[in-house]
Amino acid sequence: MDFKGKVALITGAGNGIGRASAIGFASRGAKVVVVDRDEAAGNATAGILRQQGGDALFVAADVTKSAEVQNYVKLALDAYGSIDCFYNNAGIEGAIAMTSEYDEEMFDRVMAVNVKGVFLGLRHVLPVMIQQKRGAVVNTASVAGLVGSPGMPAYTASKHAVIGLTKTASGEVARLGIRINAICPGPIDTRMIHSVESMINPNDPSGVGATYQSNIPLGRYGTAEEVANLVQFLCSDLSSNITGAQYVVDGGRTATGGAVSNSLVR
Q1: Which positions are catalytic?
Q2: CATH number of the domain that 235 lies in?
């Protein structure tokens, strides 16, 4: 997985899987465009890459706004001239509530970030890749995009939609030298899963975490680096015959049906 001379653009790169992916791409020679709404976190990621000898650019952007998505694409091209790998990763978990009680405004927010944000990334990056006649895209879905996740209707709907977008777009550009795949993380040891633990039981989030992990065949949460490795594989020439697919990285949880209850997340 050699990315020397290539450019990787990553949204939601300020923390978690996005940051781990940025570090992974940079360590394998890529120039990295770090995109995040959180300026402090995004600058911190770019700073880490530079400290390790990498070439990085940070762009602050709200992925739900078309003009800001167009701007991160423009700045990436201005700085590096191409976009070889696009990790379309930014997402939020939303709230925990039954569908019958779920807040409409929260539902709209989750769908805006997790679905419209992914769509806008594809909408503005794919024309660049079509012109280049090459490129690899990875969208972050979730095991919640494959099974029901009670108490998380917005997140579950949004991640099902990401898989649908992935399959549709991949078929449109496969003959143009572009591959598009989705990853489906299970519970990963990042801010998001710990937020979910706290929402489920504010008085004992660690107890929720222990229960989650006991239901995972590997007996633990995954790490951001383990997911980042999959992202890099799907962007590399090693996966040259893979497109339109979704890859589960969840320690075996969905294989044993453990993801059916409040499973989530990255």
Answers
A1: 155
A2: 3.40.50.720
Structure tokens at 194: 């710990």
Dist. CA 143–CA 172, nearest whole Å: 25
Q: Does residue 230 share a domain with residue 124?
A: yes
Q: For strand 135-140 and strand 178-185, is the pairing parallel, antiparallel, or unpaired?
A: parallel
pTM: 0.94
- CA pair distance 163, 161, nearest whole angstrom: 5
Q: Is residue 249 within 8 Å of residue 226, measured between CB atoms?
A: yes
Distance of alpha carbon 16 from alpha carbon 170, whole angstroms: 26
Quick one: CA torsion of 152, 200, 191, 76, rounded to 10 degrees?
20
In contact, 130 and 82? CB cutoff 8 Å: no
H/E element, 11: strand 7-11
Residue 214 structural domain: 188-220
User: Which residues fall within 8 angstroms of residue 54, CB to CB, at 6 or more apart?
Assistant: 26, 27, 30, 31, 32
pLDDT along the chain (266 residues), means of 10: 96 98 98 98 98 97 98 98 98 96 98 98 98 98 95 97 98 98 95 90 93 93 97 98 98 78 44
